[in-house]
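One such shown below:

_____
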Amino acid sequence: VQLQASGGGLVQAGGSLRLSCAASGSIFSINDMGWYRQAPGKQRELVAIISSAGSTKYADSVKGRFTISRDNAKKTVTLQMNSLNPEDTAVYYCNAQGRDLYSRLFNYWGQGTLVTVSS
């Protein structure tokens, strides 16, 4: 199983970015898909997560600004980030948890994509 993330970059405060992540490989089913981030000198933290049924959970710091969505058929998860501020600067990682074709549980991470918000 592989996760390929894209969409990071440099944006000014108040701007928007859209992150996408596609899962591929020997996947039978994906339960939760999510985005996490790690700022310099800080621990990785949950940004948003979405279940296969579409239930979502957000970090308090991004509620009302970020929206997570997924396409189960395409095995993709997207994070729309609006009203970005410098505190959102971090490396963003996508994550997927599920079961592969051999009935083994998996928990994989994408390679990370850098989001930089300038003031």
